[in-house]
Amino acid sequence: MIEYLPGNTLIHRLDVRTKMLGFLGILILSFLFQAPQYQLWIVVLTGLLAFWIKIPLRKIGGMMVPLIPIVISIILITGFTFAPERFDRVSSQTILFYALPGNRLGATVGGFLMGTTFLLRLFSLMIASSVLTLTTSMDDFIQFFYKLKVPAEISMMLTTAIRFIPTLDKKRRQILEAQKARGTRFNEKGITGSIRSYLPIMIPMFINSILMANSLSMAMLNRGYGLSRTWTSMKEIAFAPRDFWTISLIALSLTIAIFVRFGLHLGVL
């Protein structure tokens, strides 16, 4: 979910600083409210953004399915570990049942609701971060780090590492298919069996990583990387009227959300 997805939508055309502010706004909104119904609206918002830039549904599904065991664990843990006195509303303090004799380890309504909030918060932040990375090229990220006065070597290292994640994932799938074609089994039982079964994948992965790093270093040297201390860019990022309108909308949304949370005391458990 971090490979750049070319497009001509408004989100693609926004300045990278505007998109970073938007992601920060969604992050603040996610941690501002505790009630799951408010978190659901944030998930709907990020889902509409993902639909706008036409993220394939299979990518979103592939991102969510591995999290199902974690999600169930979070809801169960919060349901049994959040005491009634941690909640402000009487309805959230209600104890549904006790897991142990003697009225011990009670499952509270607020605990399960808080677990659902954590779940929705996780989904909204994952989708929002995917929208950010899929609509922003690595050149824009480098420009963003440059505007933040981050040393060029560090920004190059960070963006290169991020860019190579999809490449390594493609290599992993190719190696996995090749090893399956050779008859390698990946369903051995036990800890040692699992380690042995994945050795045919890890060793070629390490070798491919070293070869790609070596090829990248040779390409950078051939292009004169590090010869000059002055860095230039083919395209300078700049704010456009659409960025100012978007920033104003983000600021207005955050102001309303803060008023609803602290002025009207809504969105709490």
From TrEMBL:
It comes from Desulfosporosinus metallidurans. It is found in: Membrane. Pfam families: CbiQ. It comes from the Bacteria. The chain crosses the membrane at residues 16-33, 63-84, 105-132, 144-165, 198-221, 244-264. One of its GO terms (cellular component) is plasma membrane. It is a multi-pass membrane protein. InterPro entries: ABC/ECF_trnsptr_transmembrane (IPR003339), ECF_transporter_component (IPR051611). This is Cobalt ABC transporter permease. Keywords: Cell membrane, Membrane, Transmembrane, Transmembrane helix.
